[in-house]
Structures are given as C-alpha cells and as structure tokens.
C-alpha cells in the first residue's frame, strides 16, 4: 500500500503532460508493495505561506519522530496552483494520500470517481471531539470523507466609525432595518457596501444568505437533490436582493472590481472608504493586505451576522460559510488517518488556532483565539442552529458557477429574480 | 527531369508521387545505370530527411496532434474530467448545446467585432505609424523602440497595468480626462458591460500594434528606392506614390499581418482573463475564456473540449481558406517552382 514512488510520479506527470488526461496504466497508487515497516504519506496542502507552513511541517516532523518508518512527504501549493495540479493528477486516476478539500460538489465528484476514501469507521472513535458544523461539508449520505482543519462563517464586517458618522447606533437584525441602514449611509454620503463584482463569488453570498433566511436550509438541500430551484421562496430571495440593489449601495464601478486586489472590495474596506462588506472570517487579513495599511481600519472593524428576513422559513441563526478539510486518498495507508487524528488533537489544535490562521474545529479550543474579531465570528458560529456550505462549493461545480454567474447578472440588473432561478435550474438539470 | 543535383536532393523523394514513380520506372527501362544511381541517392536523401524529421515529428504528434485527437474524442462525452477516460457517450450533444448557449453565441459575435475592429483600426494605425517612422527624423530609433515596447511585455503584466489605468476612482484614464476638462467622458471602463469590449480592444491595440508596425517597417524597407524615385520623377504625389507603389508592394506583408491579427483575435485568452475574466456579464468573454470557465471552473471537460474543437475548426477553416485564396499569390513562387521542376 505504498503510495506514489518517484518513478511513477514522473511517469504520471509525463503521461498527464503529454496525453492531457489519458489514463495511465496502473494508476500509480497501490501498485507497488513495499516493506511493511516503511510507509510514505503524500500530503498536499495549500498553507504555502506563514504562519501555517512551518506549523504543519513541525507537526509532520513530530509525528514522524513518534512513528519510525513513516515518512510524510509534504507538497505545499498556492490555492489556484493546487486546484490545477490536483485536477491534472486526478485525470490520470491518481490522488495524494492526504489532500486539501473544501467539501461539497467537487469532493462529491472525487468520491464518485472512487478517488476519495470513506473514513467514517476510522474516525468514529474521535469524531465527537470535533464541532459538528466543521465536519458537515465533508459528509455525504451519512459517510464522512475528510477531517476539517478550519471552519468559518460569512457575515457583515462593518466600519464602526462610518456607522457613527451616519448616525447609526445599532447593527441591523432584520432585512428592513438593514435596508434602512444602507439608506442612512447613502444619505450621509458614504458608500454603504463594497463589492468585488468581477470575482462573482462575493456577490453570491447575498443571494445564498437570503435564500437560507427565506426558504430555509432543508429547501436548499432539497433543491440541490432535485436539481430544481424554481420554488417561490428562491424567487423571493432574488426579489429581496433586488430591493437592496435598487438602492444602488455598491461603490462606483463595482462590476469591474476584484476582491483582494488594490482598489477592490477588501481594499475599500481596509482604506475606510466603504461602510460594510459581506465576507468570511479571513476579511480582516485581506483588508489589511489589499489596502496596504498596517492594520486596515483597526479597532473600527467589527462583525454582525446576516439579518433575519421577516416571514422567512429559515432560522435567523443559521450560518453560511465553509472551511478546509483534509480528505484521504483511495490508496492511503492507515497511518494517514492516524496522522489526521494527531493534528486534530486538542493540544495541536490550540497551536494551530493560536496562529490566527484558522478558527477552531475541536471543541474546547476556542480559548486559544487571540484575535477579538475572530473570537466574535467564532461566538456567532457557536450559536448557529444550522450550517450551509458556500453554494458554489456545495453544489456540483457547474451549478455553483451558475449561481455565481446568475446572481452577478441580477446584481448588474440584466436578469430578474425569476430568471435567476430558471438559469440555475437549467444548469442543474443538465448535470 | 533535368533538375540540378542540389535541388533534387531537397525536393520530396520521387517515390512519394505516383506520377513520378511511373515516370522513373519508364526512365529505368531506357537509361539503366545512371538512373539507378540517382534513385539510390534519392533513397539516401529520404533516410536523412526521416532521421532529421523524426524527433520533431514525434514531439509534434505527442504535443500537438495527440491532444487534438483526445480533445475531439472526449468532446463526444459528458465528462467531468475525473477518474480515467470518459464513459458517458453523448454523441454530438455537446455541440448541439454549444449552439444554443447564449454565452458561446455571444463569444462568436464579440470575436467578430474584435476582428473587424482590428482590421479597420489597429492595422491601418500600425501602417500609418510605420510609414511615419520610415521618414527621416530625429530620434527615429527611439520612437520605434517605444512603439514596439508594449509587444514585449507579457499579456499578464499588460492586463494588470490596465486594470489600474482603467480603475474608476484612481485610474489614469479618468484622471487624464478630468485634467483636460472632459470629466463627463470619464467612464467605468471595465465595469460597464456595453463598454468593456471596446476597452479591451483599446488594450489589444496598445499591446499589438507595435508588432504589426515592425512588420510593415520591414516590408517598407524591402521596397527598392528606385521604384519610389521613379514614381516621383513621373510626378506622383506623396499620396499617389503610396497608393500605387507602396501599398501594392506591401501587399504580402499586409496579408500576413491580417492573418496573424485574425488568428490572434480568435484565440485571445490571457489578456482578457487577467483584465476582466470575461465579465462583467460576459461583456468581454471570448471563446477561449468560455472554454476555460467550463473546463476548469465548472468541470464540464467534455463540453469545454467541444468548444476547443470548434475553435480549432474555425481557425483551421480560416487558415486554409486564407492560404488558398488570399496568400496564394505570395506563396505561388515557392510552390510553383517545385512543381515546375518535376
């Protein structure tokens, strides 16, 4: 059960390069039988920069020291490079022993292709130590395929100083109050919301949250299963979003703006030029980096959850977000799962959370969060009754991208609420 | 049959053409030994040619032909690209879907607009500047370098540069407009779905006209001075000399440059991807961008391959048609000489 040897990696790479996805003989993986004593675990992760890169390395070193004969070979890749490289590898029918996943539709396709391993039984003794919301994106039909290492949620990050300037004393808890907030900000000459329209995914958060609030989580799940998004609640979600869009709440030229680039969504927030953005737990970091300021807007930045929608079927505490997990390849040795158990124990989890890179996935590690803003996200997440994975991850990739595309058109004013649900349904039926 | 020795070695081996084989058989009957020696020489030439061609041919087959064949094959499947070769055969379904896909039909339309704009604006501009820079003037070499410089930049750098130039709030473009008092012309260049294609064309022109300019400059310098002088003596004015002497003699260069501009517009990808990702609302999307979206974002690899097959077909039909009907007179010499030698 030795994983890829160097020669077969080279062969695979050559085959993938030359034939562009033609199946290779043997499919790498478990073809070779090595000595039982020495095992290699191929680990592909995307924490290719500080602070997590050295932390993962240190944990791997520690594990190898405790388990002689086990070698952990780490490949750390940048996000987009990882996706491209993994796609090429999987087309040859092979997969690393431990690999990064966001769960949802892509993982589902990897499972269907027989590439990812069902680890339900392997982790059963200790899965109870993890928070349920963090494991949920990797569960299909009661089976678990990955161990989480990060979880978070999307909500409104807002500029307290700008809110005060517009005379707003409380953060809105209902959609009507939210629209009022936007109007007040606009009246005060402040750009209410920063949005990176070029990237599309930040826009889909609005429709997704509204669909959760109006239709509820079970309806979203059912819609995915039935490939039908035409229920009146989804149209209503679009109508609610249209109410917001009609207020013209976004910055000038938002359709061409990116998310994390200079002059993009995060940079506007970090520069104090917009009052709000709907974004995940990573927002403060990106605001700081994209705006080129030492600490963004610093203490003026705070978080409030997405407001409730009057008369909606969804629980107002339901959280929308996602995280990261490590899935296990089909030919991985048992030590791979054991290693995942090792990095997920409370001590190691505290080390990871202390870096500020991730939110805790192990119960009881919350106290290791040093950053106050991240702590507030963690608190909201703890209160959540239900959890919905990003729609562009939860559904098959084509459906997820269609949600992004159609919602972008709704925000741009070229599609109506009904047409959005029709377009998504059409793509879903085509799967 | 009286080709000089050097030429006969370079021309394709006689045995390849049925007519030649018959001719040389007839010749063998008549002439015997000298002809056999010639055939042996030709065979040796054939071996040499094969040996020299083989490495390039193998690479060409593996890197160019095989991917095309595999793409064409997988375009007949509904396939997400995972786990070995596809199994869900759908025939020409992907192609039927393609021609009902509003985005793809829009790609064709936008591609056509870009091609027409390139031919009507970009190439004449390049020609005008090339002729201008052919005049004697101070700092001519510097101007040539400056105009050619954008072509040397990579597409990605160009695109990143122009996202800054076109930034609605801090961008150079709007800043310049406001400095000269044209505030009302300031626009959201890349954020307006109806404007973005023309902003893209502006960037394309900035990036590629220098390349065409260099082609024209080289072509212009290949025109013998005597001809323009003769035209001058005959009393042709500057415009007439251009119209009746320079332009016709630049014909071959212009035809090649048109060819490159059209093929470039059909395959346009990296510039668009970094600049706008095809948006907003598909306003600047090209065929290649749609293909990438479908293949790498939506994991519809079969469908994406159908797009790539259509792209290859469009390029191929254009290239062959263009060579057959337009480039014919330019290549005529090269081909007819060989035909005459038979």
TrEMBL record, chain A:
<dbReference type="InterPro" id="IPR050490">
    <property type="entry name" value="Bact_solute-bd_prot1"/>
</dbReference>
<keyword id="KW-0732">Signal</keyword>
<dbReference type="InterPro" id="IPR006059">
    <property type="entry name" value="SBP"/>
</dbReference>
<dbReference type="Pfam" id="PF01547">
    <property type="entry name" value="SBP_bac_1"/>
</dbReference>
<feature type="signal peptide">
    <location>
        <begin position="1"/>
        <end position="25"/>
    </location>
</feature>
<protein>
    <submittedName>
        <fullName>Raffinose/stachyose/melibiose transport system substrate-binding protein</fullName>
    </submittedName>
</protein>
TrEMBL record, chain B:
<feature type="transmembrane region" description="Helical">
    <location>
        <begin position="195"/>
        <end position="218"/>
    </location>
</feature>
<keyword id="KW-1003">Cell membrane</keyword>
<feature type="transmembrane region" description="Helical">
    <location>
        <begin position="46"/>
        <end position="73"/>
    </location>
</feature>
<comment type="similarity">
    <text>Belongs to the binding-protein-dependent transport system permease family.</text>
</comment>
<dbReference type="InterPro" id="IPR035906">
    <property type="entry name" value="MetI-like_sf"/>
</dbReference>
<dbReference type="InterPro" id="IPR051393">
    <property type="entry name" value="ABC_transporter_permease"/>
</dbReference>
<dbReference type="Pfam" id="PF00528">
    <property type="entry name" value="BPD_transp_1"/>
</dbReference>
<keyword id="KW-1133">Transmembrane helix</keyword>
<feature type="region of interest" description="Disordered">
    <location>
        <begin position="1"/>
        <end position="39"/>
    </location>
</feature>
<feature type="transmembrane region" description="Helical">
    <location>
        <begin position="145"/>
        <end position="166"/>
    </location>
</feature>
<keyword id="KW-0472">Membrane</keyword>
<feature type="transmembrane region" description="Helical">
    <location>
        <begin position="112"/>
        <end position="133"/>
    </location>
</feature>
<keyword id="KW-0812">Transmembrane</keyword>
<feature type="transmembrane region" description="Helical">
    <location>
        <begin position="301"/>
        <end position="322"/>
    </location>
</feature>
<dbReference type="InterPro" id="IPR000515">
    <property type="entry name" value="MetI-like"/>
</dbReference>
<protein>
    <submittedName>
        <fullName>Raffinose/stachyose/melibiose transport system permease protein</fullName>
    </submittedName>
</protein>
<feature type="domain" description="ABC transmembrane type-1">
    <location>
        <begin position="108"/>
        <end position="322"/>
    </location>
</feature>
<keyword id="KW-0813">Transport</keyword>
């Amino acid at each position: 059960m030795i994983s890829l040897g160097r020669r077969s990696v080279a062969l695979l790479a050559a085959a993938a390069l030359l034939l562009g996805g033609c199946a290779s003989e043997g499919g790498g993986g478990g073809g070779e039988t090595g000595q039982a004593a020495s095992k290699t675990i191929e680990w592909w992760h995307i924490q290719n920069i500080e602070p997590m890169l050295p932390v993962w390395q240190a944990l791997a070193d520690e594990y190898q020291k405790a388990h002689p004969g086990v070698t952990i070979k780490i490949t750390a890749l940048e996000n987009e490079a990882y996706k491209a490289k993994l796609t090429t590898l999987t087309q040859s029918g092979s997969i690393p022993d431990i690999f990064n996943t966001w769960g949802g539709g892509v993982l589902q396709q990897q499972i269907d292709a027989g590439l990812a391993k069902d680890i339900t039984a392997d982790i059963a003794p200790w899965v109870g130590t993890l928070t349920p919301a963090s494991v949920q994106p990797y569960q299909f039909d009661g089976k678990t395929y990955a161990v989480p290492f990060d979880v978070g949620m999307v909500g409104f990050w807002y500029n307290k100083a700008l809110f005060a300037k517009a005379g707003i004393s409380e953060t809105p808890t209902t959609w009507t109050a939210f629209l009022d907030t936007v109007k007040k900000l606009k009246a005060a000459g402040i750009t209410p919301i920063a949005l990176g329209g070029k990237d599309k995914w930040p826009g889909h958060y609005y429709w997704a949250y509204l669909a959760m609030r109006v239709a509820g989580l079970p309806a979203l799940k059912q819609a995915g299963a039935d490939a039908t998004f035409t229920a009146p609640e989804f149209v209503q979600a679009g109508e609610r979003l249209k109410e917001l869009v009609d207020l013209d709440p976004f910055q000038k030229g938002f359709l061409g703006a990116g998310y994390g680039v200079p002059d993009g969504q995060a940079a506007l927030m970090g520069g104090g030029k917009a009052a709000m953005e709907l974004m995940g737990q990573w927002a403060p970091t990106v605001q700081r980096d994209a705006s080129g300021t030492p600490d963004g807007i610093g203490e003026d930045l705070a978080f409030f959850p997405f407001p409730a929608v009057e008369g909606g079927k969804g629980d107002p505490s339901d959280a929308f977000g996602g995280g990261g997990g490590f899935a296990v390849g089909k030919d991985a040795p048992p030590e791979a799962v054991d290693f995942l158990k090792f990095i997920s124990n409370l001590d190691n989890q505290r080390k990871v959370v202390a870096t500020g890179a991730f939110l805790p996935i192990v119960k009881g590690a919350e106290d290791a969060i040093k950053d106050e803003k991240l702590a507030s996200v963690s608190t909201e997440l703890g209160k959540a009754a239900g959890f919905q994975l990003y729609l562009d991850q939860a559904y098959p990739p084509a459906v997820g991208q269609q949600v992004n595309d159609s919602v972008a058109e709704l925000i741009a004013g070229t599609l109506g609420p009904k047409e959005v649900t029709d377009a998504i349904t059409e793509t879903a039926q085509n799967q | 049959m009286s080709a000089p020795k050097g030429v006969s070695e370079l021309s394709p081996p006689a045995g390849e053409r049925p007519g030649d084989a018959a001719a040389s058989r007839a010749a063998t009957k008549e002439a015997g030994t000298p002809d056999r020696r010639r055939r042996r020489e030709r065979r040796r030439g054939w071996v040499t040619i094969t040996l020299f061609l083989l490495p390039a041919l193998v690479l060409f087959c593996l890197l160019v032909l095989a991917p095309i064949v595999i793409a064409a094959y997988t375009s007949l499947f509904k396939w997400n690209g995972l786990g070995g070769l596809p199994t869900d055969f759908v025939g020409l379904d992907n192609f039927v879907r393609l021609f009902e896909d509003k985005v793809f039909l829009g790609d064709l339309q936008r591609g056509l607009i870009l091609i027409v704009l390139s031919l009507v604006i970009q190439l004449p501009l390049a020609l005008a500047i090339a002729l201008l820079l052919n005049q004697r003037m101070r700092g001519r070499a510097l101007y040539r370098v400056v105009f050619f410089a954008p072509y040397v930049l990579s597409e990605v750098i160009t695109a990143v540069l122009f996202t800054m130039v076109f930034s609605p709030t801090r961008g150079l473009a709007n800043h310049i407009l406001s400095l000269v008092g044209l505030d009302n012309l300031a626009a959201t260049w890349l954020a307006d779905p109806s404007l973005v294609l023309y902003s893209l064309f502006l960037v394309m022109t900035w990036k590629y006209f220098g390349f065409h300019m260099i082609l024209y400059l080289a072509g212009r310098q290949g025109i013998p001075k005597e001809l323009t002088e003769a035209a001058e003596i005959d009393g042709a004015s500057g415009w007439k000399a251009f119209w009746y002497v320079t332009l016709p003699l630049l014909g071959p260069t212009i035809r090649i440059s048109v060819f490159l501009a059209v093929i470039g517009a059909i395959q346009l990808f990296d510039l668009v991807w970094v600049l706008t990702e095809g948006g907003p609302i598909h306003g600047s999307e090209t065929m290649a961008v749609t293909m990438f979206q479908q293949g790498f974002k939506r994991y519809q690899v079969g469908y994406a391959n159908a797009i790539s097959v259509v792209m290859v077909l469009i390029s191929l039909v254009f290239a062959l048609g263009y060579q057959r009907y337009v480039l014919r007179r330019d290549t005529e010499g090269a081909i007819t000489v060989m035909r005459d030698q038979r």
